């Protein structure tokens, strides 16, 4: 029997586990195995399973349950802005070529600690696409940290104030993919440029950074201090996939088509 979920099938007739076994499983912290055990044991008895199979199915339940819990936690700590995934992404409506979309969604570039810079006009799907890839990375058991330049700056500035900058940068760089969304929407002062530099420098050739911006990275020095911008972009682009989006804003198209809101009742 192959079970695919960590939720045991409702088997009201399956007898509860003996108290001592239940206690042992709690003590060993095997919650998913414990939840599945009554049902698995009842099925195993009825179908005369090999004992090794019983053990395998039970341990598998625990592994599946733990993996799913880890992914749930990672999704939460990633701090995603909208929850948009590839499921709602329409590849043919994007100006990013199908081949590029496909290649990026293999996530192999994250394994190689390469970066991704998506630039283009407002509403052309930059944030949606990167968030979809980032969700996909979590499903592939990777870790993601999502920031805007403002939230990154606030995080690093707070750390600076209590002397924990190095620790904070190290913690952020535990993620396999660090996203800095919507760079260049607002002018970035010394603090923002410094925060961005610290992360790009710490992640350089070790972790992947994905940025989205209305401005091509070569123009980042137009809205942040030049020296820091140059050093940051130099590192960011050394091993980077540079993608530009084109076209009209999806937001505007949807608004004009009357799809931006639900009709009032
Ligand atoms: N190819 C697509 N498939 C599905 N939805 C899309 C696509 N492209 C854009 N959208 C939708 O259009 C809206 C705008 O997209 P998004 O926020 O990703 O734009 P952006 O390029 O990041 O814009 P900005 O520069 O203003 O931040 C979102 O609601 C997004 O879900
Ligand atoms: Mg955006």
UniProtKB/TrEMBL annotation:
Pfam family of the protein (one): IstB_IS21
Isomerase among keywords: no
Residues in AAA+ ATPase domain copies: 112-244
This protein's record includes keyword ATP-binding: yes
CDD domains for the chain: AAA
Keyword annotations from UniProtKB, A to Z: ATP-binding, Nucleotide-binding
InterPro entries assigned: AAA+_ATPase, DNAC/IstB-like, IstB, IstB_ATP-bd, P-loop_NTPase
Family named by the database record: Belongs to the IS21/IS1162 putative ATP-binding protein family.
Name used for this protein in its record: IS21-like element helper ATPase IstB
Organism in which the protein naturally occurs: Paractinoplanes hotanensis
Taxonomy of the source species: Bacteria, Bacillati, Actinomycetota, Actinomycetes, Micromonosporales
């Amino acid at each position: 029997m192959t079970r695919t979920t960590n939720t045991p099938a409702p088997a009201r007739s399956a007898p509860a586990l003996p108290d001592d076994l239940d206690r042992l499983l709690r003590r060993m912290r095997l919650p998913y195995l414990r939840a599945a055990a009554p049902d698995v044991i009842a099925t195993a008895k009825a179908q005369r399973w090999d004992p090794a199979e019983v053990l395998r199915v039970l341990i598998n339940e625990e592994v599946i349950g733990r993996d799913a819990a880890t992914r749930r936690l990672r999704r939460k700590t990633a701090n995603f802005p909208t929850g948009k995934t590839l499921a709602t992404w329409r590849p043919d409506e994007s100006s990013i070529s199908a081949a590029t979309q496909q290649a990026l969604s293999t996530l192999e570039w994250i394994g190689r600690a390469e970066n991704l810079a998506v630039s283009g006009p407002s509403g052309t799907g930059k944030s949606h696409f990167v968030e979809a890839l980032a969700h996909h990375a979590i499903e592939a058991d990777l870790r993601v940290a999502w920031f805007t330049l403002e939230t990154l700056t606030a995080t690093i500035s707070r750390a600076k104030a209590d002397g924990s900058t190095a620790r904070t940068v190290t913690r952020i760089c535990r993620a396999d993919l660090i996203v800095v969304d919507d760079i260049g929407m607002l002018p970035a002062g010394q603090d923002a440029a410094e925060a961005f530099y610290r992360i790009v420098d710490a992640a350089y050739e070790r972790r992947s950074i994905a940025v989205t911006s209305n401005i091509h990275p070569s123009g980042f020095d137009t809205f942040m201090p030049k020296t820091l911008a140059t050093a940051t972009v130099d590192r960011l682009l050394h091993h980077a996939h540079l993608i530009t989006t084109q076209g009209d804003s999806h937001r505007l198209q949807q608004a004009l088509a009357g799809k931006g809101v639900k009709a009032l009742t």
